C-alpha cells in the first residue's frame, strides 16, 4: 500500500527562524534553545530600537550583540545580511537598526578584506530612504570609527543624496540642530548632481551656501517652494501672525513648505488656535496623531477636528504612513478628547490588516509578565505588554473560534464578543508578575488546532519542560517574539514549531503559508 507517494501527501513545512539543538537557559532559568546566527540576528533586528534598554539586557549589551552578529554574517553570508538590512529599512520600517547595521556590514567586510556578495556601496545606499539619513549614517560612523570615512560609505551616501535631496527636504531636515548639515555631507562625499535632474546643481549650491554663508544665501529662482519660504522668513516678526490669520494663509504656508515644527519658531510666539488651523491642512497623518493633545489644548474647532479625524482614520493614509500598530494605541491612551477615540480605533484596525482570519480553534496566549512592561523605546510610553495585547486581541477577533488568555505567574481567559473593538478588549489585560508559560499552556490547551504565544520567551523553569512540549507534535505552535533575546522557549524551524518576531503584523502572513504546507521564507524573499 502506498504510504507516502499519494496526491494528498504534504511535506512538513519549515520556517527560517531555526534552533540549533543546543540548550541554553532563559533569563528566568527555563530550559531555552539556542538559535542559529541568522535567526538570532533577525529576531534581534526586528525587536531592537538601538541603544534602548530592555528588562533583561542593557542597551549597550544589545547593541554589542547586534553589531557582532551583523559583522559575522556580513563576512560569512553577505547576500542574506544585505537582504535583511534592506528589508529592515523598507518593509520593516526600522530606520536606526538598518543604518547601524549597514555601517557594521561595511566595517566588518573592509576589515576582513571580503568583496563577495552585494557591494558595500549598494548596502549603504539601500538603507538610506529619508533625506536626514545620510547624516545619521555619517554621524554613527564618525562617532564609532573616526572621521576617516572609507570610499564605499562615501559613494553609497552620494548615491542616496542624489535620490533624496530636494527643496522640501532641505527645508525640513537641513536645520541648525544637525551635526551634519546638507552642505557638510555634499562636501564630504563629493556628491555630483543627478544628470537627470537639471535643477539639482543649483539646489546643491544653495545647500552649500546655507551652510557656509547663511546671511547671503539665495535660493534658486526656479524653485518656487524655496523662494516662497524665503519671502516668508524675510517678513518682520510683527507681520507674521497676520499671514496665518488671513484668507489664504494656510495655502501660503503650504506653498512655502512651512512645517508645524518650524511655524512656532517663525511666529516667535505660541501655537494658538489660528496657527494650528492654518498648518493642519499640510500636516501628515502621523504629525497629526502626535499633536492631538495640542489641538485640544489650543481649542481647534470641530470642523477642522473632523478633517483631522477623517485623515488619520483613512485606510490609504494608514497604509502610507507605515506605522506600527502600537503607535495608534499610544495615541489613544494619551489623547485627552473623546473626539479622537473612534478615528484612532479605526486607524488601529487598518494597521492590523495583515492579521489573518484563522480557521478552526485557536489558542492565543499573551505574555503579561513583569519583563514585558519595559517600554518599546525610550521615546515611547508604550510597553511590550500592551503591544502584545494589541496583536493577541486582533488575532482572537479575526479567528473563526479563539480562546484569548493573558498569563504571567498565573493565567486568565479574557471573554470577548465577535465584532468587539481591540481597544475595548485591551481594558481587560493586567500585569501578572512572573512568566510561567508552561503552566499557562497546560491549563488552557484543549485540543485546539493551533497555539500562538505572544511573548519575550523568558519563561521560568518548569518540571514539565518547555511550553511547546505541552502541545501534541502534530499541532502547530507559533511563537511571536517581541524582545529578541538570545534564548528561545522552545525549538523552531520545523516539526510544527515556528518563531516569528517584531512589532508589526507582517509576521502573521507566514501562518497561512505554513498551514497550507508551504515553507515560510525570510520576509524579503517572499
Automatic annotation (TrEMBL):
This is RNA-binding protein. It comes from Streptomyces resistomycificus. It holds the Pfam family TROVE. One of its GO terms (molecular function) is RNA binding. Residues 1-21 are annotated as: Disordered. It comes from the Bacteria. SUPFAM superfamilies: TROVE domain-like, vWA-like. It is found in: Cytoplasm. Keywords: Cytoplasm, Metal-binding, Ribonucleoprotein, RNA-binding. Residues 24-360 form the TROVE domain. The keyword RNA-binding applies. Belongs to the Ro 60 kDa family. InterPro entries: TROVE2 (IPR040322), TROVE_dom (IPR008858), TROVE_dom_sf (IPR037214), vWFA_dom_sf (IPR036465). One of its GO terms (cellular component) is ribonucleoprotein complex. PROSITE patterns: TROVE. Its main location: cytoplasm.
Amino acid at each position: 500500500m502506498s504510504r507516502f507517494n499519494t496526491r494528498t501527501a504534504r511535506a512538513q513545512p519549515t520556517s527560517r527562524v531555526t534552533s540549533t539543538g543546543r540548550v541554553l537557559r532563559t533569563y528566568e532559568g527555563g530550559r531555552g534553545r539556542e538559535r542559529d546566527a541568522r535567526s538570532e540576528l533577525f529576531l534581534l533586528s526586528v525587536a531592537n530600537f538601538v541603544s534602548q534598554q530592555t528588562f533583561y539586557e542593557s542597551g549597550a549589551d544589545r547593541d554589542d550583540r547586534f553589531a557582532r552578529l551583523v559583522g559575522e554574517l556580513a563576512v560569512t553570508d553577505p547576500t542574506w545580511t544585505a537582504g535583511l538590512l534592506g528589508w529592515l529599512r523598507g518593509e520593516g520600517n526600522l530606520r536606526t537598526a538598518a543604518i547601524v547595521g549597514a555601517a557594521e556590514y561595511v566595517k566588518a567586510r573592509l576589515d576582513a578584506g571580503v568583496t563577495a556578495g552585494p557591494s558595500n556601496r549598494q548596502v549603504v545606499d539601500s538603507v538610506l530612504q529619508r533625506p536626514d539619513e545620510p547624516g545619521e549614517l555619517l554621524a554613527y560612523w564618525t562617532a564609532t570609527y573616526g572621521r576617516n570615512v572609507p570610499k564605499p560609505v562615501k559613494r553609497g551616501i552620494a548615491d542616496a543624496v542624489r535620490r533624496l535631496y530636494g527643496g522640501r527636504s532641505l527645508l525640513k531636515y537641513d536645520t541648525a540642530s544637525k551635526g551634519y548639515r546638507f552642505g557638510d555631507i555634499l562636501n564630504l562625499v563629493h556628491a555630483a548632481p543627478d544628470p537627470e535632474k537639471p535643477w539639482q546643481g543649483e539646489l546643491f549650491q544653495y545647500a552649500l551656501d546655507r551652510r557656509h554663508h547663511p546671511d547671503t544665501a539665495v535660493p534658486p529662482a526656479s524653485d518656487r517652494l524655496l523662494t516662497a519660504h524665503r519671502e516668508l522668513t524675510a517678513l518682520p516678526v510683527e507681520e507674521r501672525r497676520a499671514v496665518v490669520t488671513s484668507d489664504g494663509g494656510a495655502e501660503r504656508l503650504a506653498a512655502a513648505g512651512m512645517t508645524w515644527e518650524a511655524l512656532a519658531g517663525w511666529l516667535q510666539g505660541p501655537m494658538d488656535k489660528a496657527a494650528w488651523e492654518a498648518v493642519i491642512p499640510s500636516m501628515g497623518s502621523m504629525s497629526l496623531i502626535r499633536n492631538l493633545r495640542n489641538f485640544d489644548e489650543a481649542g481647534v474647532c470641530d470642523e477642522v477636528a473632523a478633517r483631522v479625524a477623517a485623515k488619520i482614520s483613512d485606510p490609504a493614509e494608514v497604509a502610507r504612513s507605515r506605522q506600527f500598530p502600537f503607535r495608534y494605541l499610544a495615541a489613544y491612551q494619551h489623547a485627552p478628547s473623546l473626539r479622537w477615540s473612534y478615528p484612532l480605533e479605526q486607524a488601529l484596525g487598518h494597521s492590523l490588516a495583515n492579521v489573518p482570519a484563522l480557521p478552526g480553534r485557536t489558542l492565543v496566549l499573551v505574555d503579561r509578565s513583569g519583563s514585558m512592561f519595559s517600554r518599546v523605546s525610550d521615546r515611547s510610553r508604550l510597553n511590550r505588554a500592551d503591544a502584545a495585547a494589541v496583536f493577541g486581541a486582533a488575532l482572537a477577533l479575526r479567528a473563526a473560534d479563539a480562546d484569548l488568555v493573558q498569563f504571567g505567574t498565573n493565567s486568565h481567559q479574557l471573554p470577548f464578543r465577535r465584532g468587539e473593538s481591540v481597544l475595548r478588549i485591551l481594558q481587560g489585560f493586567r500585569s501578572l508578575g512572573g512568566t510561567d508559560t508552561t503552566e499557562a499552556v497546560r491549563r488552557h490547551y484543549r485540543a485546539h488546532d493551533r497555539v500562538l504565544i505572544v511573548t519575550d520567551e523568558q519563561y521560568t523553569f518548569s518540571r514539565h519542560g518547555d511550553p511547546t512540549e505541552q502541545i501534541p507534535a502534530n499541532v502547530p505552535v507559533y511563537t511571536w517574539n517581541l524582545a529578541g533575546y538570545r534564548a528561545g522557549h522552545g525549538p523552531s524551524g520545523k516539526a510544527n514549531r515556528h518563531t516569528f518576531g517584531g512589532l508589526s503584523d507582517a509576521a502573521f502572513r507566514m501562518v497561512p503559508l505554513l498551514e497550507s504546507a508551504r515553507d515560510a521564507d525570510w520576509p524579503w524573499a517572499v
